[in-house]
Design goal:
Layout (H helix, E strand, L loop, with lengths): L14 H16 L20 H21 L7 H11 L16 H16 L1 H4 L4 H11 L13 H13 L6 H12 L2 E3 L2 E2 L9 H17 L3 H18 L24 H9 L6 H16 L48 H4 L11 E4 L4 E6 L4 E6 L11 H5 L3 E3 L22 E4 L5 E2 L4 E6 L4 E8 L2 E10 L2 E10 L3 E6 L3 E2 L3 E4 L2 E6 L2 E10 L4 E6 L12 E10 L2 E12 L10 E5 L2 E6 L4 E6 L1
Antiparallel strand pairs: 1-2, 3-4, 4-5, 5-6, 7-8, 7-13, 9-10, 10-11, 11-12, 12-20, 13-19, 14-19, 15-16, 16-17, 17-20, 18-19, 21-22, 22-23
Length: about 600
């Protein structure tokens, strides 16, 4: 498994299969890991921190898999090498010392892995440490206690370290734990949802950070009162988060840090580890193992078996400033399930499919609406668009498109000029006659209804757009009311598929590609929009390296108030068809009709 040029044949159905998959990753790392060193060099690309810190990160993130395996009592051929690295990395008199930390330091992030090791292994982690080596480890980690760092999920790194100290019998600071929890309480939204800091997005950090660490703390801290709260919030969150998973094991790619790959399901590993009673062990087991199988089929390692930067294929275009060559190994957090012995109900349970899920599910706190088509074989997230204050690379593509797909992902902007580079899939883009296209970024108003998501946004100070995103069977509809004081060129795109020729039928563009079909049909406008398709440069899609084709609708708009409306559909079946919905808008009332199923949806605008 995970080997670039070998058959990907690990069935990933048993605990030993999962152990083998972890050892394959650790074995590839071991070949890049000289004995006696405290860092691993995995490539020459850069992050905003130094290469030395990036190499320390590469070593540290491997421990998210190694420590749970060690905690289970499993024989681990690499453990001594890593324990030696920890001793040398925390020894201030060693040339391998990791160094003293500074405010907002990446090394603070990596400390959470060592907190996990102390939490799971307790004194067993320190058995081979001398008294001085234990003091060195404690002193180095203790730098995080009062460290200045982002007021976000980073607070949990300090909590994990203190929890590790407590579990291992080392001096710890309960007030530091309480203080960090108090800070995070300020951005709890309700119903199990947080934002990643005040005013920050609601993305996979809520699952792979807040609830992942929260469930570990609730399980092992003896802080019973807080544990009740954390477990209940995780239980509520699970009822929403299960809608991010597709029946084939894929999850909807959305937001930043997607290069962490199968960290998308770390929440479910923590659910299993904590024994949280929310879904049966068989359902949770199925979500995790199908996800790992899905990733096994993607091109995510290089010829040496090292995880690359990217999503379903290598892609530096999508990387954040903080993504170093070792960053993807946060995916190993998913291996928390290996801390559970073979006899645990999770491993003994028969793997079960996803439960029957509603065709649409609104999540008001996240400003999202999840669609499950074809018995959850394809999941589409409709979203209002979230503003990422740090303005990471391609932040609009990651947060503000109208729709995100478990099958088709999304494309990335490759340049500021010209439509071909503008990542127009699942977006309405507008240009002021100059070839520089703008789409939705910050929303001035958002409403989430069980039948639609509404957002109001202004790409210019004198152009105001109201958008309704409406799930409707296999389709979703987009209704835009545009009030513009300037003349504009407009383009609206459907989902991106592998490069293919288009077909034009009446007012729609239809694409049938090797990886599926994508359709966009104009429904309502003063003048019919022109259906067409465009081809993006290679490495635009996060799902495949080839050029992508996007079905589009284009039209110029004059000054004044205009309606632009369309229906969008995509499927893994290139031959899939469905009758186009019919739309009528009169007196601020929208009526949508399905001519096949004879069903109607109406709502006020």
């Amino acid at each position: 498994m995970w080997a670039a040029n070998k058959e990907k044949s690990n069935p990933l159905s048993s605990r030993q299969d999962v152990v083998a998959s972890l050892n394959a990753l650790l074995g590839a790392l071991d070949k890049q890991f000289p004995a006696g060193h405290s860092r691993i060099s995995l490539g020459e690309t850069c992050a905003h921190y130094s290469a030395d810190i990036a190499r320390m990160e590469g070593l540290s993130r491997a421990l998210w898999g190694l420590f749970p395996l060690m905690a289970s009592g499993e024989i681990t051929p690499y453990s001594e090498k890593y324990l030696t690295a920890i001793k040398r990395g925390t020894d201030p008199h060693s040339e391998e010392y990791w160094g003293d930390t500074e405010p907002f330091d990446q090394r603070l992030v990596e400390m959470a892995a060592y907190g996990l090791g102390l939490t799971l292994l307790q004194h067993r982690l320190l058995e081979s440490f001398s008294e001085q080596e234990v003091k060195n480890l404690h002193a180095w980690l203790n730098q995080i206690t009062d460290a200045q760092m982002p007021d976000s999920n980073w607070n949990y790194f300090a909590i994990m370290v203190q929890l590790g100290f407590k579990r291992a019998g080392l001096p710890f600071d309960q007030q530091a734990i309480d203080r960090r929890f108090d800070m995070m309480e300020a951005y709890y939204l309700g119903d199990g949802w947080y934002s990643d800091g005040a005013g920050r997005p609601k993305d996979y950090y809520i699952s792979m950070a807040f609830h992942f660490y929260g469930l570990i703390y609730a399980t092992l801290s003896d802080d019973d009162e807080r544990a009740i709260v954390l477990r209940e919030r995780a239980r509520q969150f699970a009822q929403d988060f299960i809608f991010f998973s597709a029946a084939d094991g894929a999850s909807v790619p959305f937001g930043r840090s997607l290069t962490y790959r199968f960290a998308m399901v770390t929440f479910w590993s923590a659910v299993a580890f904590s024994g949280l009673e929310v879904f049966t062990p068989g359902i949770v087991k199925g979500i995790v193992l199908r996800h790992l199988r899905w990733w096994q089929q993607q091109s995510i390692v290089d010829r040496d078996g090292i995880l690359t930067l990217g999503f379903a294929c290598p892609n530096l275009v999508m990387c954040e400033d903080y993504n170093s060559p070792g960053s993807p190994y946060w995916a190993l957090k998913t291996y928390l399930i290996l801390a559970l012995p073979e006899s645990h109900p999770f491993w003994q349970a028969e793997e079960q499919p996803l439960p029957v899920l509603a065709e649409k599910h609104a999540i008001p706190h996240a400003q999202q609406l999840l669609m499950h088509a074809d018995h959850s074989q394809h999941v589409v997230m409709l979203t209002a668009g979230q503003l990422e204050l740090n303005n990471y690379v391609n932040t609009e593509a990651k947060y503000t498109k109208f729709a995100y797909s478990s099958r088709f992902g999304f494309t990335l902007e490759r340049g500021r000029f010209g439509l071909k580079h503008a990542a127009c899939d699942s977006m309405l883009l507008l240009a002021d006659g100059d070839g520089y296209f703008r789409g939705r970024r910050e929303c001035e108003e958002v409403r989430v209804d069980e039948n639609y998501i509404f957002s109001r946004w202004s790409p210019w100070h004198d152009v105001h757009i109201e958008s309704w995103l409406v799930p409707f069977g296999d389709w979703h509809l987009r209704l835009h009311r545009i009030n513009s004081q300037r003349e504009l060129d407009t383009v609206e795109g459907g989902f991106a598929v592998m490069k293919t020729a288009h077909q034009i039928h009446e007012r729609g563009c239809y694409l049938a590609a090797p990886n599926g079909s994508s359709v966009i049909v104009d429904l309502f406008a003063e003048r019919a929009r022109q259906p067409d398709s465009l081809v993006t440069p290679p490495n635009s899609s996060i799902m495949f390296a080839e050029c992508a084709s996007i079905p589009i609708l284009t039209t110029p708009l004059g000054k004044g108030v205009h309606w632009l409306c369309c229906a969008v559909m995509a499927s893994g079946d290139p031959a899939k068809t469905a009758a186009t919905p019919r739309l009528h808008i009169t007196n601020n009332q929208a009526v949508i009709h399905d001519p096949e199923r004879e069903r109607t949806l109406s709502f006020s605008l």
